[in-house]
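Entry 12.
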Amino acid sequence: MNSESSDTEIFSLEFKVIVVGNAGVGKTSLIRRYCETEFGQEYKQTIGLDFYSKKVDLPRHQQVLLQIWDIGGQQNNGAMIKNYIMGAHAVCFVYDVTNASSFKDVESWRSCVYEALSEQRQQKSSVETVQKGREKGNKDPLMILVGNKTDLPNRQVTTAAHEKFAAQQKMLSCFVSARSGERINGLFTRLASQLADIPVPQQDVGLEDRVVANVDSNPEERVGVANSMKESNKNSSRKNKDGCALM
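Predicted 3D structure (tokens):
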């Protein structure tokens, strides 16, 4: 677990953000780039989940805390997603723009998330007492489609396809590079702004969107890693007993 905030700090607004997507799409690298401003060259698969936290300064002197859950790419069965989605304010669906199958599988991840949300709503409706003042938490989470690895050549997912899917599913939309840091800060600043309902001037978001780190590896090296991940994930699609499947 990584936490930038001290134990003594109290935030008036805290939001839970879960990050899902196939193994190897760069979820952990994206989160670590944001929370720790570093990029790991070596791929290490997240087993289960990991937690990070990051404070965000918004206008009106408002500080919010983002609690970011890094969900392992193999944790795609219905039971686990149901546990992770509980209390989430936002869900980031991450895919690799150089891997068409990872984009296609976003639909399966979305279906699993919505199935979990549907079950939660049914459970809530059967409970008579619901605390007032938590209406915001009772809404469906904010959804955002994130295309990662934009620094790599041989892109397989077009901007048009990305934007069309995001519009159809009523998701926010963003392209990022965990390697360079491009648009990473802007992504989470926008997320915090939407969740807190505090507008951030576009010029400020633009500053957040600047590349925040030097490029320290060759794209060709990462293409080799990406290709090996694609090969290892070819036969990983499966259907679980809860009916959620990655196709």
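Annotation: The chain has one domain: 2-232. The longest strand covers residues 49-58.
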